[in-house]
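Lab notebook, bench 4. Still working through the backlog of constructs that have no structural model yet. Next entry is a single chain of 137 residues. Request: give me the structure tokens for it.
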Amino acid sequence: MSSEEKVTTVKSAQKESGIRQRFVSFKATQIILWGFSILETMIALRIVLKLIGANPESFIVTLIYGITSPFLIPFAGVIRSPATDGMVLEISSIFAIVIYALIAVAFEKLVWVIVSRPRTPVSDVTETRVNENHTPD
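Model written out:
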């Protein structure tokens, strides 16, 4: 290698602005949907337990009824629940699942609107270094 040869190093990186805000928005919406999914699953279990006439003195049945009852108070008495031989079809609970699903979607969209930033074009950052004092290996 002659002493006049130059060694050029080129590094290229891509930067995207707003990626942190999109990550926070994504995680927040995941948490919201996860929480509402658990609530809706518990209400669905309650519906099934009532429908099959599960023993209300059983620990797990009492636990599920206890957890879901506060969330069903706004829907109590909205729609009559047909009952026969200890089996109850809680139509108001089915209605509650639909309403809570709509609320979950609304919260998700609200968080997305507040926190998220739109994607911006990816900008390339290029760094070039020239080393004129390169010694051959």
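Notes after review: Residues 4 and 112 are 57 Å apart (CA to CA). The helical segments are 19-51, 59-72, 91-115. Flag for follow-up if needed.
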